[in-house]
Structures are given as C-alpha cells and as structure tokens.
Amino acid sequence: MAFPITPDPALPFMTQAWNEIRLDASLTYQIARTHASIRRVMESICKQHAGLNVNQWKLLAIVAKFQPARMADLTRWVTFDRAFISRAAQELEKRGLIERVAEERDKRLAILKLSDDGARVYRQVAAELDRVQAAAFAGYKQRDVSLFFLMLNTLDERLDAYQAVRASLEGPQPDAAPPRPAPRRRAARNE
C-alpha cells in the first residue's frame, strides 16, 4: 500500500514542525491518550467482574473468538510475546477459565478453548465492555463509527507499510550486535 511522503495541504497540521504541532492534532499523542483511558476502564471492569488483568482478558477474548486456538497462532492477535502468552494461558488455566489440550497430530502443541466458567466470564466482561463502547460512541451515526474503525485499520496498514519501507532502506546495521537471548527467570516460589 502506498503512503504519502509529502505533506498534504488539506491537512495543515502535517506541514508544521513537530514542536509546533498542537497535541490535539498529534496522532501519537491522541492515540496514546485514548489508549490510556480505555485501559483504565478495562482494568476496572476486568478486575471487578473477573479478577483478571487486561492482558489476561485479551487472551481470554482471543481464545473465545478463535477456539479451539493453537497457542502458536495467538501471537498474531495479541500484542505481547509468546512467553507472556504462555504465562497468561497458564494463569487462566489454573483459574479454570481455559482448557489446554494437546493437538492430535503433534502432542507437543497446545490447543486452547474456553471452559464453561471461562465462557461465562467472557460473556459477562464482554457485555460490560460493549456497554462502555456504546456509551463512548453515543451520539455518533453508525456510518461515522464504521468510518472510524476503517480509518484505524487503514492507519495500522499504512504504518506497517511505512515501517517496512524504512527497514528496507536502512538495511542491516554493520556495527549492530546480534540480539542476545533474554536471561531465564527463575520461577518465584509460592506465587
């Protein structure tokens, strides 16, 4: 997908230097601010209704949507790494909200699905989050809400394309050291 490399005169905030940009016209500032607001609401709802943190909720919701879901496929849908997914899945399994079964063809691979309790918690929290979303979009026409989500998806695609082009132009860094493996953490006792 192509993306503009020159400012669009129809968007005057794009022609200003970074230090002159009004915060209300800064994509990064507004998205970060909105994300923080949404996260605070989600944390409150998840803790109140299910005793979950937001990342555990995200994993529960992704499993609910794609179940039975292979652990390896979940990384495409959540914004945290495999180790975190594994820890969150273990916690959800320990609490009886998801079930882990071995894949038939390769017993080393795990498949996750919601337990009956997990399905109940998912429906409860999802219904509350739907009410929050309805309140946030109250007063907007449906076509405007649809356009908003289309714009968010398009922004994601364009930013991914921009990053890919930048990475290809920069090429490998000659004096950059190869990444070191993360140190192994010892399991804490009595957690």
Report on this model:
With 191 residues, this protein is mainly alpha-helical. It is 54% helix and 6% strand. The protein is built from six helices and three strands, in the order ααβααββαα. It has helices at 27-50, 54-66, 71-74, 82-94, 116-136, 142-170, and strands at 69-70, 98-102, 110-114. Strands 1-3-2 form a three-stranded antiparallel sheet. Helix 2 crosses helix 4 and helix 2 (54-66) packs across helix 5 (116-136). The chain is globular, with a radius of gyration of 21 Å.
Q: Summarize the biggest pleated sheet.
A: 3 strands, antiparallel
| Helix and strand element order | HHEHHEEHH
Overall shape = globular
Q: Average pLDDT value?
A: 79
Order of strands in the sheet with most strands: 1-3-2
Beta fraction:
5-15%
Helical element count? 6
The percent of residues in helical segments reads 40-55%
Residue windows where pLDDT falls under 50 for at least 5 positions: 1-6, 181-191
Count of strand segments: 3
End-to-end span in angstroms? Answer: 47 Å
Give me the Rg, rounded: 21 Å
SSE class: mainly alpha
Task: Identify the notable features of this structure and list them briefly.
mainly alpha; 191 residues; disordered N terminus; single chain; 3-stranded antiparallel beta sheet; globular
Could you give the topology of this structure?
Blueprint: H1 27-50, H2 54-66, E1 69-70, H3 71-74, H4 82-94, E2 98-102, E3 110-114, H5 116-136, H6 142-170
Antiparallel strand pairs: 1-3, 2-3
Q: Can you describe this structure in just a few lines?
A:
This protein is mainly alpha-helical and 191 residues long.
